[in-house]
Write a structure and sequence with these properties.
The structure is a single chain. The protein is built from 12 helices and no strands. The longest helix has 22 residues, at 27-48. The radius of gyration is 17 Å and the shape is globular. By secondary structure, the protein is mainly α.
């Protein structure tokens, strides 16, 4: 897997070509898929997981599914949507079970990708940000997920639209409404949190 460890964003091949290779069982392609997508996968997990559950554990579960089940995807164009579904299912299953998970040792995923934080941990550790995330958890799924992808991963509307398979205009509308709902929730609690314009605007 040394070749996958050395991949840089500019060296990653066309996503559909890469997905086809991964589906065919190419371990380096599977590793590259994880490098390409894991950060927004982390944002999706954060949008659905219980607050108490560990993000890294859930990322490992998704990575394990990527290694063991990507061959079940029929169309390379659907890998991104499939990966999102796996992430949501892992987060929701975690909400149902809430039990300790064993540490998984993944074969075929670069070691540095397993231990490197999926997002800037200061975003989640910061006290005010934790309060914001607590408020975001109260938003409906359709609004929470695009807002998290924008705020935590910095994705543009076009990128979020590709992940969620929705029109770009719909993404803009949902993020705008999510921000309004978030401000309303903050006012109800008697405090003014709110995401910065930089974090939530395209």
């Amino acid at each position: 897997m040394e070749a996958a460890l050395k991949l840089r964003p500019t060296e990653i091949p066309d996503e559909h070509v890469l997905s086809a290779s991964a589906i065919a069982g190419d371990r380096e392609a599977i590793s590259a898929i994880w490098i390409l997508h894991r950060r927004w996968v982390a944002a999706v997990i954060l949008a659905y997981k219980p607050r108490e559950d560990d993000l890294e554990d859930l990322l490992q579960e998704v990575a394990m599914s990527l290694v063991s089940k990507i061959s079940t995807v029929r169309d390379p164009r659907h890998v991104r949507a499939w990966l999102r579904t796996v992430a949501i299912n892992a987060a929701r299953a975690s909400a149902r079970t809430r039990h300790s998970r064993p540490q998984l040792r993944l074969v075929g995923i670069p070691e540095q990708e397993k231990v490197e934080p999926a997002i800037d941990e200061s975003i989640v550790r910061d006290e005010e940000s934790r309060r914001i995330l607590s408020l975001v958890a109260n938003l409906p799924d359709d609004y929470r997920e695009p807002l998290m992808l924008r705020a935590l991963h910095g994705m543009r509307s076009k990128q979020i639209a590709a992940v969620l398979e929705l029109p770009e205009a719909t993404i803009d509308t949902r993020i705008s409404r999510a921000r309004r709902m978030l401000r309303e929730l903050a006012r109800e609690e008697g405090k003014s949190y709110g995401f910065s314009k930089k974090a939530t605007e395209p």
